[in-house]
Design brief:
single chain, globular
Length: 272
């Protein structure tokens, strides 16, 4: 009974730590989950190896998703954004507030667009600011019964490098090309004004001056998104993360599934 109560107590502690917004308690909560999985098999067997296997099962859980749904996914090599109205933003947390804050910060609405593939819909409300030399976007995602939104601020310098600050709640599912610099802020940071300040600080810390940034063309923003997606796909094809299926689509290779597993484990520990 004492050992059972220890396991229950650790599970409660882990759940409590994971509910924190601070990074350190969340990571500690993930470690407590792993320790609990270790003890679940260690207590009845008194075998350290059995406990290690228990902890390993927790880390291998993403493979269930990888070998069932992800392995069968097919995504288009050339996916074109379509001009369309957004779904009801009320269903997406913080999306209306973010769009309103972009307007308050002087960003001008440049259009709405989106694309769809393999049961997933992604919609964008795009804004631009000539003085900031930046593009901002509220992104709405629908996949099965899961909906979420996130914010992104992007700037491009004279050398072609893309500087991106986002509160996207997951790790990237493809490797970023060398010219992309990714600034990942916590997903609970939903205030656009704060994310914009983070973006400015990111540029300053990287030694990028405003006069070195290109002024975005509002008529070309959606074309730039398509172009960046194709560059990212080509980069991952070259790395062997994905492979062509011969019908205009691509799928994850074995190497890509291993890469995704690492990203899933990272998300399990980080929890945005």
């Amino acid at each position: 009974m004492r050992e059972t109560l220890i396991v229950i107590g650790l599970l409660v502690l882990a759940a409590a730590l994971r509910s924190y917004r601070l990074t350190l308690p969340r990571k500690l909560g993930a470690m407590v989950f792993v320790a609990t999985a270790f003890l679940i098999l260690y207590f009845p067997t008194r075998s350290i190896w059995a406990g290690i296997c228990g902890a390993g099962v927790w880390l291998l859980l993403p493979w269930v998703e990888l070998l069932t749904r992800v392995r069968r996914m097919r995504q288009p090599l050339d996916n074109r954004l379509q001009r369309r109205s957004l779904p009801n933003p009320a269903f997406f947390p913080n999306a209306p507030e973010a769009a309103s804050a972009m307007s308050e910060a002087g960003f001008e609405h440049a259009g709405d667009c989106g694309w769809e593939w393999d049961g997933m819909k992604q919609s964008f409300r795009l804004f631009w600011h000539p003085e900031e030399r930046a593009v901002a976007a509220v992104c709405l995602c629908e996949q099965s019964d899961i909906v979420y939104s996130f914010i992104a601020v992007l700037s491009r310098d004279d050398s072609g490098r893309l500087w991106r600050t986002t509160n996207y709640p997951f790790s990237p599912t493809l490797k970023c090309p060398p010219h992309v610099r990714w600034n990942h802020v916590p997903c609970h940071r939903n205030c656009f004004h704060q994310i914009l300040r983070d973006h400015r600080a990111f540029l300053a810390c990287s030694g990028v001056l405003k006069e070195h940034l290109r002024v975005p063309d509002p008529e070309e923003i959606d074309s730039d998104i398509e172009r960046e997606m194709r560059i990212e796909i080509d980069h991952n094809l070259a790395l062997g993360i994905i492979r062509l299926t011969g019908d205009g689509n691509f799928e994850y290779s074995l190497r890509g599934l291993v890469f995704l597993w690492g990203q899933f484990v990272k998300d399990m520990v980080r929890l945005c």
